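Before relying on records like the one below, remember that each one covers exactly one chain. Contacts with other chains, cofactors or solvent are not represented anywhere in the record.
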Amino acid sequence: MKILLYIIGTLALIIGILHFMAPKTYQVDRKIVVSEDIDTVFKSLCSLKEQQIWSPWAEKDPEMKITYNGTDGTVGSFTHWSGNKDVGEGEQEVKKIEPNSYIETELRFLKPFESTSTGFFELKKVDEGTEVTWGFKGENTFPSTIMVVFMDMDKAIGPDFEKGLSKFKVYIEK
């Protein structure tokens, strides 16, 4: 019995240490420059329906079921998706729009695990057209803090953002 208590105590201590070592926030983002004017880019990125056209996750599950609610491209509009194990189930709601500069969404993941993140697009006019930064950020809470000690969010999600931005560039410049 004493050994079992030592084992449980040691495991609790390790979990506690890992929790306190883990980063409490995360942010993953990528940038690309597109040769379209900022008005056109902004209007396209505000649209949840247009985002689906170039989304890197749409091709991971072509059978994904998607519903749209509200007036697309406005604060309060949202989409719900349900798909295979690669895309899971969740919702994305437009929370904030700053014309031609910033779009913020709330990503509510429901399956395979529940979590909430903030998605965002930042736009900046540059000589070549428009610089687009696409990313998401949030807080790590227990027990996810234990997982992030062993997982690199940037390496896990970053390539999807790169792929999506490349597809967006092709889409918006056509």
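DSSP finds five helices and seven strands in the chain.
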